[in-house]
Amino acid sequence: MKFNQIIVLCVLTVSMAQPVYANEVASETLPQFTTKDTEILFDNDTKSMQLAALSPQEMKETEGAFVNFALGGAAGFGVYAVSNLLTHQPITWQGSLYSFGTGALTGGMGGALIRASGGGLAGQIAWRPNIHAANFGFSQYSRYRGW
Question: How deeply is 55 buried, as exposed, middle or buried, from its count of CB atoms within 10 A (0-12, 13-18, 19+)?
Fold first, then answer.
């Protein structure tokens, strides 16, 4: 068991040391952008963006887009409240608002990202693990803060 911990510690040390070496490069050795490079980079091709107002049908299709955010926020707060009741922890305003906000963010944006990537199984495979990872990260921060 101790040997495994040493290996993990060595791997983490090496992986964290690389960015430190990358920051020690002198700025004089880095290539500088010239005016011509900047003009090419931000070249304006003057093509029309073809902006138009949404049609009544498109407006009707976007109605209720906030529902995913509201349901996600409610679910986030619900999970927070139930978990705190089961573990006999106090429900705080900070924790409540944070849980509602993260639920709304992951619920609302998650549904939008899945639909934007084509929906169905491909959208679920592409975005669902990322949504769960973000939600887990948010919950770890909340736990760290004691909410």
Answer: exposed
| Amino acid (one-letter) located at 119 | G
Residue 113's CB: how many other CB atoms inside 10 A? 16
Q: Domain ranges in the chain?
A: 68-145
The structure tokens 């169905």 sit at 120
Tokens encoding 130: 């990322």
pLDDT tens by residue, 51-98 = 777 788 877 776 767 788 888 889 889 988 898 889 888 888 888 898
List, as one string, the DSSP characters of 96-137. HHHHHHHHHHHHHHHHHHHHHTT-HHHHHHHHHHHHHHHHHH
The pTM assigned to this predicted structure is 0.50
- Whether pLDDT at 19 is above 60: no
Whether residue 103 contacts residue 76, with contact meaning beta carbons closer than 8 Å, is answered with: yes
- The residues near 44 (Cβ < 8 Å, ≥ 6 apart) are none
**Rounded to the nearest 10 degrees, what angle do helices 93-116 and 120-145 cross at?**
160
Sign of CA dihedral 32, 35, 40, 43: positive
